[in-house]
Design goal:
Helix content is 0%, strand content 51%. It is an all-beta fold.
């Protein structure tokens, strides 16, 4: 069964940095597209960044230039380097390897809380 375990969150001041990790297991191949998503209190879950098996990445406009997504296919681990953090980045961050056709998500992990203080 697919499992995602996110880690690396915490409390940081605005302008600071964090690096999130996501260990994926149970049928996720190196060719799967993987992504980071976040959900702030009272808001819907939103896409932060995705990366293909070949390493091509796409970012939400709100994080472009500040966040960097990467993956280690040997370790089956997804990363998100977050720099120049802002209070509006406060959310629970999740990783997933969405299905393409039909589009959908695999079971979510517990996520990791990121809190940015002003």
């Amino acid at each position: 069964q697919v499992q995602f375990v996110e880690s690396g969150g915490g409390l940081v001041q605005a302008g600071g940095s964090l690096r999130l990790s996501c260990a994926a297991s149970g049928g996720i191949s190196n060719m799967n597209v993987m992504g980071w998503y976040r959900q702030a209190p009272g808001k819907q879950r939103e896409l932060v960044a995705i990366i293909t098996g070949g390493g091509r990445s796409t970012y939400a406009e709100s994080v472009k230039g500040r966040f960097t997504i990467s993956r280690d296919n040997v370790k089956r681990t997804l990363y998100l380097q977050m720099d120049s953090l802002k209070p509006e980045d406060t959310a629970v961050y999740y990783c997933n390897a969405p299905y393409a056709d039909p589009f959908g998500f695999r079971p979510w992990g517990q996520g990791t809380q990121v809190t940015v203080s002003s």
